[in-house]
Amino acid sequence: MEEVGDGQRFIGSPLDQRMTFETFLVGPSNAMPHKAAMRVASSSPGDHVEYNPLYVHANVGLGKTHLVQSIAQSVASNGRNVLYLTAEKFMYGFASSLKTQTTLAFKDQIRAIDLLIVDDVQFLNGKVIPHEFGHVLNSMLDSGRQVVVAADRQPSELDNLDERVRSRLMGGVSLELGPLDIELRRAILASRISIAKQRQPGFEVPATVVDYVAQAIDSNGRDLEGAVNRLLARVTLSGAPLTIEVAETAIRDLIRTRDPKKVKIEDIQKLVASHYNVTRADLLSSRRTASVVRPRQIAMFLSKVLTPRSLPEIGRRFGGRDHTTVLHAVRKIEGLSATDRGLAQDIDYLKRMLTEI
Predict the structure, then answer these.
(1) Which fold has domain 2-176?
(2) Considering the chain, what percentage of its residues have pLDDT values greater than 90?
């Protein structure tokens, strides 16, 4: 048995004390699973069980383990009898009970709890163990006790379980934690940066860099956390301030392969020209009036942030300019957008227009 929270006794897989409802960041992609999890966690013994089983599924790094562990933490802290098991722990416990001939006691121990949580159920394998999981599931549901199951796919796609078990899981409430939207990615980055600053008080990440990372890494929360760790290491080891160029180098290995045609420089030029009431020809020209220079710099900045093109290539696309001109434009817009709220809002709007499908 292991300790959880304020001395509560807890049987099962260890819990990560950081994974609570308080640290779970909510956005449109996970709001419904979060609400359902909160309802399950706040119910009392004897209450009508609304979502049973509650089945949550998501791709790697989107927060399903955080969510189900939050339920376990909350329920355990209120003194209720909860059991959180990973698929690996379930298999290990059952295999050990077979060796020691205590299988009945093992199953009775599981069935004696108020709430059962099984995480990563897609990893249950073998001929006997998935079958026994089905027996435990049926026993819990038939007696009106709460079951929460998490996996990386829908219940209908769990080929490791027989049809009857899949059907029982599908008979409950199945909710998906979807991909992280841009605002949720920014919030995750802000949270991770705040935690990192507790270790390194001088760690500062400009808003433009946060925005760049949030745009560049759209896969999952683990990669975003990895990005913050890489930025922290770069600042700590080099002592140099963070810029988009520095961030780009630091997180290069975390950026998923992208279609370079997703955002085209020509599309950026057309949108920026329309937004600032100039022509695309103005952006490519040698005109240096203020009404043209600023939009041109913004278009160069967006070309650097939203496309995989190099500085020399961007310069060529803007009337054959030198790469140092592009670099100057990127740094200029970085600096201005950090203090000019109106400009930052303009850039955010243009990014959304260019990247929303």
Answers:
(1) Rossmann fold (3.40.50)
(2) 43
pLDDT at 318: 95
Three-state DSSP at 147 gives strand
CA pair distance 266, 284, nearest whole angstrom: 11
Q: What is the mean pLDDT of the chain?
A: 86
As a whole number of angstroms, the distance between CA 76 and CA 45 comes to 13
- Return phi, psi of residue 115, to 5°: -140, 125
pLDDT at residue 356 tops 70: no
- pTM, two decimals, is 0.66
Domain covering 265-355 in this structure, CATH number = 1.10.1750.10
Per-position b or e across 84-115, b if 16+ CB within 10 A of its CB: bbbbebbbebbeebeeeeebeebbeebeebeb
Range scoring the smallest mean pLDDT among 10-19, 42-51, 253-262: 253-262
Going from N- to C-terminal start, the domains of the chain cover 2-176, 182-254, 265-355
Second CATH level (architecture) for the domain 182-254: Orthogonal Bundle (1.10)
State the pLDDT at residue 81.
85
What does the alpha-carbon distance between residue 314 and residue 287 come to, in Å, rounded to a whole number? 18
